[in-house]
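Quarterly update from the structural biology core.
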Amino acid sequence: MRHLTAFLIGVGLLTTAALAADSPRNGKNPTTGPSKTPAAPADKDAPPREAPKDPPAKAPADKPADKPDPNKPDPNKPKPDTEKKPDTTKKPVVPQRPRDDTPNRDDADRARTLVAEAEARVTRAELRVRSLEDEVRDALITRDRAAADLSTANQAEGELTRTLGTMEQSAREAVATRDRQTKSLEPLLTRVNDAKRNTSGAEAELQTAARQAEERFNKDPSTLARQEAVEAATRRLASEQQRVRDKLATDPSFKQLKATADANDALVKQARAGAPADTEVLTRASQAWIDSKSAVDAAERKAFAADAEVVGAEKTLAAAKQTQIDALAAFKAQLPNDPAYAPVATALESRRAEQASAEKEYAAAAAEARGIQEKAAATIKDFDTVSARLRETRASRDRLASQQLNADRAARLARDDLDAARDELRAARAALADARRRQG
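Predicted structure, tokenized:
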């Protein structure tokens, strides 16, 4: 604005100087140009000078002077003082040359340009102010949101810290209970192992008692007689069967079956003796021998079944064996009542009952220990989970605190920029008002 004022003052001075230079006082005629004779400096208080009078014309020497005409005025006669004298109290009118309006138009254009620039400056300042107001509002919103989030994080940290303290105590108690329960299983397990050893010892004693009772049974005369009857029946059956075989040996068809079986047996032995043995040949020879041997056995069984003596010997042997089996079953049935066996069997039952009781008590304690262990494991897992959440919350709190500081710093910087922008807007509006006053 100071530059505009200086510029307008300079233009005014130049215009005044130009007009003064073109005035008659400076020896210039606005219509005919500069005078050849320089004019003396004008004194505004001095009376105006009269114009010089023309000298009287001289008559030619060779021509007589004409007689004066009474109707014509005498030029040599002083004129009467009838002319209007100039008013020396008024300033002389200085003729003005046509003014050139080009400098005035340039000044107006410059003034309009300055007004337009001032308006543009105001517009830019207003836009800058609005932009910074939005920036300040956003920064304050971000700061407030960060502060709210930080407050929430601090509350969450406090709650998690208190929860973690309670859970830590619970976890310690759960671990202690688990350890006590695990330790309490040791004597129960020892009792179970002792009961198992006692049961095993009683079972061994019972087996010894049973074996001794069986030895007594086998040495009993009645048992020996039954065994002798079985052996005698076995010998008689073997004798009768041999008699039938001897008779078959004279039968041509049986002899043929026997010869075929012997031949096939020789082929099997021969195939096995090969190095290496031919598997396919050995398989065929073995199958042929089995078939021929089965035919011989079938012929013998048929002959045995057809012989009455053999059939009678078989029945006698079967009856003797059944008598022996029945006697052994009766012995085992009355064994628990045996005076030497019964106390041992009773002791074994007692040992087994003690083992079952110890195992049941241990199983119940072990199940309770597993429950306690699972509860302790769950408590420890929850504790670890809350600990991890607390670490994450603290890290988030630190980040939010940093964000709040940054947002607060950004808000202060934005507010400073806004103050500066408002100062610029006021200055721009003042400059615009000054430019408009000068333009008007």
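The first helix runs from residue 2 to 22.
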